[in-house]
Amino acid sequence: MLAGAVLLLIAALAWLSGGIRLGAATLIGAMAGFSLYHASFGFTSGWRNFIRDRRGAGLSHQLTLVGLTAIFAIPLIAYGELIGIHAGGFVFPVGVAMLIGAFVFGLGMQLGGGCGSGTLFTVGGGSTRMLVTLAFFILGGLLATYHWDLWQALPALPAIGLAETALGPPGAIIVTLTGLAGLRFLVRSAERARHGRLAEDRPMAAFWRGPWSPSAGVLALSLVGALTLVTLGRPWGITTGLTLWGAQIAHAIGVPVADWSYWKHGMTAVEASVFASGASVMNLGLIFGAMFAATLAGRFAPEAGLSTRDVVTATAGGLLMGYGARLAFGCNIGALLGGIASGSLHGWAWFASGFLGSIVGVRLRELIGMDPPRLASGHGAPV
Q1: In the chain, what are the domain boundaries?
Q2: pTM here?
Q3: CA dist., res. 107 & res. 356, Å (int)
């Protein structure tokens, strides 16, 4: 099929541009897209379902994914050199810009209809609306790099990695898993309090045609995270690749991005092939991996028309996500999943601020008619 052939071509070009590691990264990205599509695994809907209706299955599975990834990532980052694996984590400062960026991203992903990974896999699945979101996601990230000095002048704490404190890697794992388990307990308790029982998970169907159970998606995506760390030496990330695409496009049409401080030491990547960046080829692999999955399932059918509201909300959501993600050092994948799984304090701060932004975004969706109003009793309408 066409999607599979394109995937192999991208992997070959990546291999030629940067060696076997980039070729492998393309296929790992394809695995991510295939898994995200079949498991319908999105942060956006999981958060919205909990905010509106206290349905916590999606959020609970996300917390499980972070925990599984942390069990592998924290020790590998700390001790990987002993077995010849050189890996670093995503550990960034917690500052005013980061918190604002995460909030803006959380708001934007509810308007745009998907987070970073969600945008890419739904584009691969045939969503025309999400193509608009993706285009403005890329533009938003580029604009944030233009304003980089302004935001970086705001106050920030030093980067804090739990494994590098007195806790050490074992303590960092214990603290991280305890925090995630506590949150998962609160989420499930809130669902029981609202509905009396937990909703049942969707069962696993056919591997190739889907749909998958959420648990299968969690296992597959945790494997994606592990393979990315081993192959590229860093956690899985989405938005750096999207921002790079924006800079490459801008540079190609004559925008002087080389004069911007953000790109001052990054022009080698900007001037290189799109297939020479691990983040870039993983994103391409993700899109075409999801397209391959949608084709196998017989569900690849791009819609023809978009309403004015579709275009406006996709545009606004994409801009907010791209801009916010760059300020916050990533999206749900790079900052939340990659940050917490690296033992970084900023991952937890991103989670809190991003979730607050999503609460505002969910209420805004209701105000403009994207979602039905909640019932008068306080119970949310299903979404």
Answers
A1: 2-367
A2: 0.94
A3: 8
